Amino acid sequence: MGAIPFARWAEAMGDMLLPPGFAALEPFVGEWVLPDAVARMAKRQASSIAAIRLFYDAMLPRGAAALEHLRQYALGEVPPDAERLLKLMLALAEVAPAVEWYGTPSVPDGFPVQRIRYLRQIADNTTQAGAI
């Protein structure tokens, strides 16, 4: 028996994947809601530019509304559905340069991502004060 995809599990549990008004973005939750910056960078690197563009084209028109929705919460107090929306927005920020500047998932003539080592990571929903 295989694992149940997160989207189906959340629906079965009665949880909303995303806040009201963002249902059109739910197909991207399972693939683009990632735990941290390292996972987002790896996802961008491993994705085709066509897959990135599909995500980007769906997210960009909803970006302003998503940010407006997220402004009502303090970091560390974001409910699960809004946290998933936050992580989608962080993924959009990760992939936007690939679409807008490079036309490729990797950064041409950039520092090799395999050599990047994070000394410290701050959780996406942690305040800067809470991270110190």
Q: What are the segments in which pLDDT stays under 50 over at least 5 consecutive residues? A: none
Element order: H for helix, E for strand: HHHHHHH
Chain-averaged pLDDT: 84
Quick one: biggest sheet?
none
Which percent bin holds the helix content?
A: 40-55%
Radius of gyration: 16 Å
Beta-strand fraction estimate: under 5%
Tally of domains: 1
How far apart are the first and last residues' alpha carbons, in Å?
43 Å
Please give the number of β-strands.
0
The SS-based structural class is mainly alpha
Overall spatial form: globular
Total number of helical segments? 7
Characteristic key phrases:
132 residues, mainly alpha, 51% helix, 0% strand
Characterize the structure shown.
- There is one protein chain.
- By secondary structure, this protein is mainly α.
- The chain has one domain (15-131).
- It has 7 helices and no strands.
- The radius of gyration is 16 Å and the shape is globular.
- The N and C termini lie far apart (43 Å).
- The mean pLDDT is 84.
Task: Give a brief description.
The protein has 132 residues and is mostly helical.
